[in-house]
Amino acid sequence: MEKPKHHVFVCGSFRVAGDPKGICHRKDSGALVGYLETEVSDRGLDGVTVSAAGCLKLCEHGPVVVVYPEGHWYGKMDEERIDQMLDALEEGKPAEALLLA
Fold first, then answer.
1. Which CATH class is domain 6-98?
2. Is 55 helix (H, G, I), strand (E, B) or coil?
3. In this structure, are strands 65-68 and 6-14 parallel, antiparallel, or unpaired?
4. % the chain with pLDDT above 70
5. Euclidean distance between CA atoms 79 and 98, whole angstroms
6. Per-residue confidence band for 80, with pLDDT thresholds at 50, 70 and 90
7. Alpha helices (H) in 1-101, listed in sequence order
8. Are 95 and 74 within 8 A, CB to CB?
9. Distance between CA atoms of 14 and 88, rounded to whole angstroms?
């Protein structure tokens, strides 16, 4: 397996005990994982891996998405904002307006 160029993590609100308790899962972050996977595939973005993550501890900004290795943190994500993030990723830059400071 080749190392991904970008790894996108979507907060799933899961805690150590396994129960989702935060905001992201209540705002349907699980569906965002599926949407991201479909968009990455449809756009032919080879080298991009999408994963659900445990709680990223920024509930007030949920759903939260993080792109590594860049370390870009995005908040209040929905399908429209994911499209903007992926457009910027394709251009090799962050979606500045969506970044968490």
1. alpha beta
2. coil
3. antiparallel
4. 92
5. 13
6. very high
7. 29-42, 79-90
8. yes
9. 28
Are 50 and 36 in contact, with CB atoms under 8 Å apart? Answer: yes
Any idea what DSSP says for residue 11?
A: E
Report the alpha-carbon distance of residue 55 to residue 95 in Å, rounded. Answer: 22
The one-letter amino acid code at 1 reads: M
Given this model, what pLDDT does residue 17 score? 67
Cβ atoms < 10 Å from Cβ of 62: 21
Residue found by looking up tokens 């756009």 in the block: 43
Helix 79-90 × helix 29-42 angle, to 10°: 40
* DSSP reduced 3-state for 51: strand
Domain ranges, ordered by start, for the chain:
6-98
Q: Supply φ then ψ for residue 2, to 5 degrees.
A: -85, 140
Residue 70 backbone phi and psi in degrees, to 5: -65, -30
Q: How far apart are CA 96 and CA 12, in angstroms?
A: 23
- Measured between alpha carbons, how far is 48 from 46 in angstroms, rounded to an integer? 6
Predicted TM-score (pTM) of the model is: 0.90
